[in-house]
């Protein structure tokens, strides 16, 4: 394994923004889940990319340029608040990722979602299209509330879409394999040519453009 692609971090002292307590926090530059199999769970359980204060119990996401790698599933996800010089340098340092699924995410929830989609061996492009299809059916709910986010989630063999509304709060919609496959078939022609560029952000906006440009 390329040495530069091994998991590495620096330890930094941070001050809790709420109570001022100081704490040492690991900042991961690279996370390689093939090298450290347990680390994926750590991310999903918010033990990484997260700040937790033992004193005042503040828990908040920590987003900084970092690359998540899975060489078995051929995944390279760049996490960064925005694509900035530091993230460009980091990618250059790690070298070529040909054959990898390369994605950009700007927050920890989207990173976790990409990991979970890959765990279920699903296509993230199709999942974003599935969200658009659900949105079309939720016209009534959308009229008197604001949709903040939709995220893929699963438990065992059951798949869900977690829907975050401003007023109604969080809802959980079951997602069947049939509906996933139906969407995949429905958009088969556009999916064939809609290949995201390297470290492109594949989200609902991306899928929306795809649907809009098709009709
Ligand atoms: Zn605190």
Q: What descriptive keywords fit this protein?
A:
215 residues, alpha+beta, 8 helices, single chain, five-stranded mixed beta sheet, 2 domains, 30% strand, globular, 34% helix, binds zinc ion, three-stranded antiparallel beta sheet
Account of the 3D structure:
The chain has 215 residues and is of the alpha+beta class. It folds into two domains: 3-119, no CATH class; 124-214, no CATH class. The chain has eight helices and ten strands. It has a five-stranded mixed beta sheet with strand order 1-2-5-6-7, with helices on both faces. The protein has a three-stranded antiparallel beta sheet with strand order 8-9-10. α4 (124-137) packs across α6 (177-186). The longest helix is centred in the middle third of the chain and has 14 residues, at 124-137. The termini are far apart. The structure holds zinc ion. Zinc ion binds next to loops.
Bound small molecules, deduplicated: zinc ion
Helix and strand run: EEHEEEEHEHHHEEEHHH
Instruction: Note the main sheet.
Output: 5 strands, mixed
Strand order of the largest sheet: 1-2-5-6-7
Low-confidence stretches: none
Distance between the termini: 45 Å
User: How would you classify the helix and strand content by structural class?
Assistant: alpha+beta
Short overview:
This protein has eight helices and ten strands.
Topology:
Elements: E1 8-15, E2 22-32, H1 39-44, E3 50-52, E4 59-61, E5 66-70, E6 75-79, H2 85-94, E7 101-105, H3 108-119, H4 124-137, H5 139-143, E8 147-155, E9 158-165, E10 169-175, H6 177-186, H7 188-193, H8 204-214
Parallel strand pairs: 2-5, 6-7
Antiparallel strand pairs: 1-2, 3-4, 5-6, 8-9, 9-10
Helix pairs in contact: 4-6, 4-8
């Amino acid at each position: 394994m390329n040495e530069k692609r091994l998991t590495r971090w620096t330890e930094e002292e941070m001050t809790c923004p709420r109570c001022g307590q100081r704490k040492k926090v690991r900042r991961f530059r690279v996370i390689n889940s093939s090298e450290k199999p347990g680390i994926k769970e750590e991310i999903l359980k918010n033990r990484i990319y997260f700040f937790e204060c033992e004193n005042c119990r503040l828990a908040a996401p920590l987003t900084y340029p970092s690359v998540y790698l899975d060489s078995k599933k051929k995944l390279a996800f760049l996490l960064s608040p925005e694509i900035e010089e530091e993230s460009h340098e980091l990618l250059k340092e790690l070298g070529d990722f040909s054959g990898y699924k390369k994605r950009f995410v700007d927050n920890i929830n989207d990173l976790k979602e990409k990991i979970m989609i890959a765990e279920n061996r699903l296509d993230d492009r199709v999942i974003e299209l599935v969200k658009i299809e659900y949105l079309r059916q939720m016209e009534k709910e959308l009229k008197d509330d604001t949709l903040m986010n939709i995220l893929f989630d699963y438990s065992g063999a059951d798949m869900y879409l977690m829907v975050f509304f401003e007023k109604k709060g969080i809802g959980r919609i079951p997602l069947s394999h049939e509906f996933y496959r139906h969407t995949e078939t429905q958009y088969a022609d556009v999916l064939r040519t809609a290949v995201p560029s390297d470290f492109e952000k594949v989200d609902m906006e991306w899928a929306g453009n795809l649907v809009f440009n098709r009709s």
